[in-house]
Amino acid sequence: MMNSPPNANYTETQTAPELSLFLPVLNEEDNLRPMHAKIQEALQSLGTTAEIIYVDDGSTDESLTILREIAAADSRVRVISLRRNYGQTAAMSAGIDAAKGAILIPMDADLQNDPRDIARLLGKLNEGYDVVSGWRKNRKDKLIMRKIPSQIANRIISWIGGVPLHDYGCSLKAYRRDVIQDVKLYGEMHRFIPIYASWAGARVTEIPVDHHARTMGESKYGISRTIKVVFDLMTIKFMASYQTKPIYVFGSFGLIAFLLSIFAGLWAFLLKFGYGVSFILTPLPVIAIVLLAISMQFFLMGLLAEMLVRTYHESQDKAIYTIREKIGFEDE
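Predicted structure:
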């Protein structure tokens, strides 16, 4: 392919770019200009048409002003400014929705990701993969506060999600459009996109990428995000196992509560008629009644969830499967 000029862009009547790069931005005024220069250099060496989307997630510094200047100087650049700080997942989702390219690549704007790794991600995609995830093998972060908790979290996520990756937290990834365009993100779930893609039948792999220590600005990550990830993991596990059959999980809890209720009731009767212990002297009758009520609630919630799942799929004529390819259907 021919090298694209530095300000190569597309219009509505032209072919969309081959590559969409999108970067969430939150108070990165010192990093934006050097980061964009590195991106320009990397894209120039690729010889592919590209767009660069910056999503300003409610920055309170001069980030948006700088992004306007960058957009004025480079016609490949588009800027999305969110009304307030919604979080990285929302900013990523805005970038995905706005992207026009056949290949989508998110990355951080803090200079810790290296744009030169884009070429290596694309090379791996060309081997037949649908998702290539970056792995910060030599991560330049604090050992106790960042690296060790991240390693533990990645192992748990891999176990629950069934996709063995070393580094879910690395923003630098490459996706083919067809495996990401229908993904809806909530909470802190942007890190789980490879899992969603894998569920849809995507071929997922990872490669080591460079990681640089932060030299300017402040990290936006803290312990509070770990708590959010834990809750999101619970959602991921539920969706992985019971998204289309919620009665299984609610029914299981209901059955357990029902059996415990029966056990407590029988024990109370045994104490009453076998040992002469009055019902009012033991909490077992109350426990039996409460557990019975809880079991009924679980069963009813499971049925309600089943109705909601069917309404969701049937009202939108939405299939519970995805098709990678059709063969022999050319006449339809």
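Summary: The domain at 19-242 is CATH 3.90.550.10 (Spore Coat Polysaccharide Biosynthesis Protein SpsA; Chain A).
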